[in-house]
């Protein structure tokens, strides 16, 4: 379900418990929806609240590493999985549980 919200920054889509919050949904396409569905799968396997806690903590860690909010966002393991597979519309049917953990490990080896 998509919810229009004036408080979401332009060009952002926020997934809250499987609902998509956007200011203007005109830019949302199938790839963005698939990206958000991957986040919903991540949220479910972590029982939602721990997902948001881990997401925020990892963003802070990546922010300290990169010193740039956008680079920190793109380095989050949850985002790395969603961006890597957002264009693959069959990914969720074969996605392994905890797939984002492999993205965490890959991020740790990059330097």
Structural notes for this entry:
By secondary structure, the chain is mainly α. The chain has one domain (2-109). 59% of the residues lie in helices and 10% in strands. The chain has helices at 30-45, 49-66, 69-75, 77-85, 91-94, 99-109, and strands at 2-4, 13-16, 19-22. Strands 1-3-2 form a three-stranded mixed beta sheet, covered by helices on one side. A hairpin with a 2-residue loop joins strand 2 (13-16) and strand 3. Helix 1 (30-45) crosses helix 4, helix 2 (49-66) crosses helix 3 and helix 4 packs across helix 6 (99-109). The longest helix has 18 residues, at 49-66. The protein is globular and about 35 Å long.
Task: Give the averaged pLDDT, no decimals.
Answer: 94
**Which assembly state applies to the chains in this document?**
single chain
First-last Cα distance: 38 Å
Beta-strand residue percentage: 5-15%
Unreliable spans: none
Sheet with the most strands? Answer: 3 strands, mixed
Strand arrangement, largest sheet? 1-3-2
Number of domain units? 1
The 3D shape can be described as globular
> Percent of residues in helical segments?
55-70%
Which descriptors would you attach to this protein?
single chain; 111 residues; mainly alpha; 3-stranded mixed sheet; 6 helices; 10% strand; globular
């Amino acid at each position: 379900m998509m919810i229009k919200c004036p408080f979401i920054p332009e060009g952002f889509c926020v997934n809250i418990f499987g609902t998509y919050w956007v200011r203007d949904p005109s830019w949302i396409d199938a790839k963005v929806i698939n990206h958000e569905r991957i986040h919903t799968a991540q949220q479910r396997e972590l029982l939602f609240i721990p997902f948001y806690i881990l997401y925020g903590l990892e963003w802070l860690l990546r922010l300290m590493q990169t010193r740039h909010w956008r680079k920190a966002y793109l380095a989050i393991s949850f985002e790395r999985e969603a961006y890597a597979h957002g264009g693959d519309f069959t990914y969720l049917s074969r996605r392994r549980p905890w797939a984002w953990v492999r993205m965490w490990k890959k991020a740790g080896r990059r330097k």
